[in-house]
Amino acid sequence: MSCCDLAAAGQLGKAGIMASDCEPALNQAEGRNPTLERYLGALREAKNDSEQFAALLLVTKAVKAGDIDAKTRRRIFDAVGFTFPNRLLTTKEAPDGCPDHVLRALGVALLACFCSDPELAAHPQVLNKIPILSTFLTARGDPDDAARRSMIDDTYQCLTAVAGTPRGPRHLIAGGTVSALCQAYLGHGYGFDQALALLVGLLAAAETQCWKEGEPDLLAVLRGLSEDFQKAEDASKFELCQLLPLFLPPTTVPSECLRDLQAGLARILGSKLSSWQRNPALKLAARLAHACGSDWIPAGNSGSKFLALLVNLACVEVRLALEETGTEVKEDVVTACYALMELGIQECTRCEQSLLKEPQKVQLVSVMKEAIGAVIHYLQQVGPEKQKEPFVFASVRILGAWLAEETSSLRKEVCQLLPFLVRYAKTLYEEAEEANDLSQQVATLAISPTTPGPTWPGDALRLLLPGWCHLTVEDGPREILIKEGAPSLLCKYFLQQWELTSPGHDTSVLPDSVEISLQTCCHIFLNLVVTAPGLIKRDACFTSLMNTLMASLPALVQQQGRLLLAANVATLGLLMARLLSTSPALQGTPASRGFFAAAILFLSQSHVARAAPGSDQAVLALSPDYEGIWADLQELWFLGMQAFTGCVPLLPWLAPAALRSRWPQELLQLLGSVSPNSVKPEMVAAYQGVLVELARANRLCREAMRLQAGEETASHYHMAALEQCLAEP
Asked: How far apart are CA 109 and CA 111, in angstroms?
């Protein structure tokens, strides 16, 4: 066959087989075209390439452009199959006088036509062509060659059709399409806009896999888009606002991109805009805040003004959306504004290296208070049928972030909302428990560029714990929380979260939020122990909690890096034991003995004797494990010492157990080995309290203390009560 015949065959897409013409046809009469059927028969019976080309030409003459429907396409496929296109795509020799891409172009045209059928687009014979098709996107050639352009269009149609199948994105990513698309876009050759559109689709469908396979190339695209965004002076900057969130990596965003993005956003948001122009910019800013915190905002006057502008705009948007009843809320925009408000809360409460000046903080707290008022107003209208919607969860999240830092303002409104918050948290907790999907409960709500699905199981309690910790100190809110059953819910939640840290679970993959939630729960329970002791005694859930604390502490105190949680558990358990001292579980059972032995270990290992430079006498110093976290630990340690002291007279078996642990002897030995001047008065008082109660409770303890020079040590430290106690028979 001559080159002219090949060229004619290469045009058959323009007569009906090219990708751009493979749209659904106008349905004709049910009877088939006899001429077309005869030509299709010839195509099926062709014995060589020349006959196949000739038959294809006849088919294209019988079918005018745009007249191929799905059934006809399928019959053409049945006649041609994949063998012929496969040969066209892989052949390396073209007839004399023909460009080498003519055969490949015809092969791609056939594939593009077949891919109009979703079933064929997912066929293995199409999927295994992905690497070959990807190479066509970056192949060099005459940019004005019409045949080459048609081949590129057909290639994009094939890849787009594959992307539309259920497993298509995964196959494209594995076939190297992401890198090819990035290079095609960065080259700005023919079809580069199609490359960007297909990249957007792949990132939306399989973001993690895209970044895993093509991170360097995707970062190069992000750099190009960021630079374009920073320079854009026309409407394209608003289009880029919508594209850029999809190209932000799951890891670190390059600093040069952050500079360009911040500069571009500053110009946009500093202008007078309509909502359709402003909203994409707010969503992009929210994604940056979610990914980078405030690190993308420059320090100095310009940065502080920009941050203040962001938060002010977000608060205005929230109020406009939530205060007006009867209007449809743009949930994706308001959720983005929540993220910016959360950034504002963090910066307003930061004492060191805050981007904001004090007057700016005061102003932002005022506007955020008004926006939070609107959030509370919205949540008051939420009915049971909407409680599982992601936007409600996002609204509870921002309220939780506010309450974690500020509970004095909007007190009346917050108290009115507390019953809803307890019911809401209980609903989500119980649903997540039934689904046995504990991993979802510790997830955070991502600021996604797309609208979330219809349901979003979330851990609302985790978000509310810090605020409830503050509120349980106050009489009014605490009474509401107790009345609504919050303590029982918190006990169940604590036990469930604790299960995640138990043997059999890989604690190395647990998010930090699990341990933080456990610590915050302990703080709430500590508040209740102090302010509502009757509740601890009468509510059965606290008995279950006490049993868990006793069973867990012995192993916990032995684990590296979990000292702060152990301190919370030990102190809470000691305070609860004082209230539940008549419980059978505390009457010298193995669990109770193990718990108090572990508590003694925590309390006794906090300080050591350390040599002092230039002195013959050692000084009392913090143990290495305690030293780095003592600021967070010391209040719990002193409270634990006080609680242990209170348990000694209530539990007759405790003093002999403490004596067997040798804690009182080692404590006196420690005090005797250091300079009294190195021991602070509050430490002396704490040590004396424990020693006195142990001495009063048990004669053998008194004798052991005397043998350890207890009277002399008491005199050196002016422990009058201990001296008097040891002087008694």
From this structure: 5
- Name the token pair of 470: 């503050």
Nearest of 103, 93, 101, 129 to residue 114 by alpha carbon: 129
* Number of helical (H) and strand (E) elements in the chain, helices listed first: 39, 2
* Dmax (CA) of the chain: 123
Characterize the bridge pairing of strands 619-622 and 607-610: antiparallel
State the chain's mean pLDDT as an integer.
86
For the cut 90, the answer to whether the pLDDT of residue 351 exceeds it is no
Average pLDDT over residues 204-214: 93
Cβ atoms of 278 and 235 within 8 Å: the answer is: no
Residue in the structure block whose two tokens are 């509370």: 376
Least confident of 318-332, 566-580, 701-715: 318-332
- Phi (first) and psi of residue 294, to 5 degrees: -105, 10
DSSP one-letter code for 419: H
- Whether the CB-CB separation of 318 and 373 falls below 8 Å is answered with no
C-alpha distance from residue 568 to each of 71, 91, 422, 482, 576 (Å): 71, 72, 24, 22, 12
Cα 317 from Cα 330, distance rounded (Å): 10
Question: CA 162, CA 125: separation in Å to the nearest integer?
Answer: 12
pLDDT above 80: residue 341:
yes
CA 93/CA 81 separation, integer angstroms: 22
Q: What is the dihedral of CA 389, 392, 393, 395, to 10 degrees?
A: 160
